[in-house]
Design goal:
Elements: E1 6-10, E2 16-20, E3 31-35, E4 44-47, E5 51-54, E6 58-61, E7 71-74, E8 83-85, E9 90-93, E10 96-99, E11 108-111, E12 117-120, E13 125-126, E14 138-139, H1 148-170
Antiparallel strand pairs: 1-2, 3-4, 5-6, 7-8, 9-10, 11-12, 13-14
InterPro entries: TNFR/NGFR_Cys_rich_reg (IPR001368)
Organism: Elysia marginata
Protein name: TNFR-Cys domain-containing protein
Length: 172
């Protein structure tokens, strides 16, 4: 006599129902049983490395993006195939390949497009931020061209040095 095992399946309405345990196909070379059916949950299975569980009980081989001439944007997981992208700088967002946002450095500005890039600012302009996505450079502040304060400082230093020397010589 075949005995059917059952487990309790909680529902959103706080009612529970008993469900038949799923059959684990021990002859399937791709499946691994993680835990057997208990009164609290159904049998838990997974696929061997290099495979993913497609939907229910079928293991499928993970896609090798390199063999397809593409780049891996997202790795194969236990329940999802790898996602292959056309360019190595692409990432997967919301299931689609897209170029990863880039950040520019000091003295650069962002050129927005499908494939963004950073270009150096024109002479006389800059972007002081270390990591930014600014699309324009700002004009550098003008440096003072008056050298009179520097000359006055040098003169004061020399006068002070002469006084110290005069004092030291007068002590002898």
């Amino acid at each position: 006599m075949l005995v059917t095992r059952r487990f309790v399946f909680p529902s959103l309405t706080r009612k529970t129902s008993c469900e038949n345990c799923s059959h684990f196909d021990e002859y399937n070379p791709y499946l691994v049983q993680v835990d057997e059916c208990t009164k609290y949950h159904d049998v838990i299975i997974k696929c061997h490395a290099g495979f993913y569980l497609n939907g229910g009980k079928a293991c499928k081989v993970c896609t090798n993006c390199t063999l397809e001439g593409k780049y891996q944007g997202q790795a194969c997981t236990a329940n999802q195939d790898a996602k292959c992208c056309e360019d190595q700088t692409m990432i997967v967002k919301d299931g689609k390949c897209q170029f990863a946002p880039i950040f520019c450095g000091r003295g650069e500005y962002l050129v927005p497009s499908e494939k963004e890039k950073c270009l150096p600012c024109e002479p006389g302009s800059t972007n002081p931020e270390l990591r930014h996505r600014l699309t324009e450079c700002t004009e550098r502040p003008k440096q003072p061209t008056d050298t009179a304060p520097q000359a006055a400082t040098a003169t004061s230093y020399l006068v002070g040095l002469a006084l110290v020397l005069y004092y030291l010589l007068s002590l002898e």
